[in-house]
Amino acid sequence: MSDIQTSTVSEDGFACTSQVGDFDLQIDATDETGPNPNAALVATYASCFLPAFRVGGQKTGFDDLGKVQIDADADLDDGDDLTRISFDVYVESDLSDDEFAEITDLAEDICHVHDALRDELQADVTVVGDAF
Fold first, then answer.
1. Which of 97, 118, 123, 125 is deepest in the core (most CB within 10 A)?
2. Strand arrangement of the beta sheet that strand 23-28 belongs to
3. Mean pLDDT score of the chain, rounded to an integer?
4. pLDDT greater than 80 at residue 1
């Protein structure tokens, strides 16, 4: 048996409901009843990267980074394919640029979505400390 199983159904139009474990996930190519697949991918990426960033902080001796927020931006080409993703990571703790770079490197190694994306789509990450 596989590790992950989902079931996705569309009754009509371009909206889909995926059963993911005990959760329903609504994605709509037209953005009417849920986010489109590209937006859902960017949000999923950020949702994976943020806890990976926290683990990177723990592994470098910073157990309490405080509040962490990722604002993600992405660009699409004329065919609506993703061409660029960037993350602005806002962190409550005030660390040095080198410390944030080390945490970011670890987060990139830990984040499973980061690993699943082709190299040119992996996010450009900027970290801002003492952000809140």
1. 123
2. 6-9, 15-20, 23-28
3. 96
4. no
CB 122 within 8 A of CB 108: yes
Alpha carbon distance 43, 83 (integer Å): 15
Indicate the burial class of 55 (C-beta count within 10 angstroms; 0-12, 13-18, 19 or more): middle
pTM: 0.93
Please report, for the chain, how many H helices and E strands are present, in that order. 3, 6
The pLDDT tens digits of the residues spanning 112-130 come to 999 999 999 999 999 999 9
**List of residues 6+ apart from 18 with CB closer than 8 A:** 6, 7, 8, 9, 24, 25, 26, 27
- 3-state secondary structure (DSSP) of residue 92: coil
Task: Please report the beta strands in 1-132, taking only residues with DSSP state E, as ranges in sequence order.
Answer: 6-9, 15-20, 23-28, 68-76, 82-91, 124-128
User: What does the alpha-carbon distance between residue 86 and residue 121 come to, in Å, rounded to a whole number?
Assistant: 9
Model confidence at 81: pLDDT above 80? yes
